[in-house]
Design a protein that fits this description.
Blueprint lengths: L21 H16 L8 H23 L3 E4 L2 E4 L1 H19 L4 H4 L14 H5 L1
Helix pairs in contact: 1-2, 2-3
Length: 129
Amino acid sequence: MNRNEPQPPLVAAVEAPDYLDADARKVWDRLAPSLVLRGVLTAWDVDLFGAYCTAVVHHRRAVQLVNATNPLLKGPDGPVKHPGMQVIRDQTTLMTAIGGRFGLTPSDRSSISLPEQEHGSGSAAAILD
């Protein structure tokens, strides 16, 4: 453990980047409060977490597009993969990579250690109520 790790100022506000669209802002509003409460999301991390929120929205939109059509489309020489499938894969990769930095995957969450007083029997959502 690096005991000399740089730490962001505790008083710095953690605010959503202004470039998030309404859907990405909903993702931010759903996840950021509990991450801030646990000290995982800080003022230094807002742009990276904003990228995560945007990736979630792009993934969702690509899934909706593919679901509204078909994963296979008619091509000149037969069926071809819907281009949205690549967007889904790319955004899933981003979500996994960035989300893991914030403990948003089960395996990555197991590698984050919070101070003892941060562990509670209630969920982060319950703490926010």
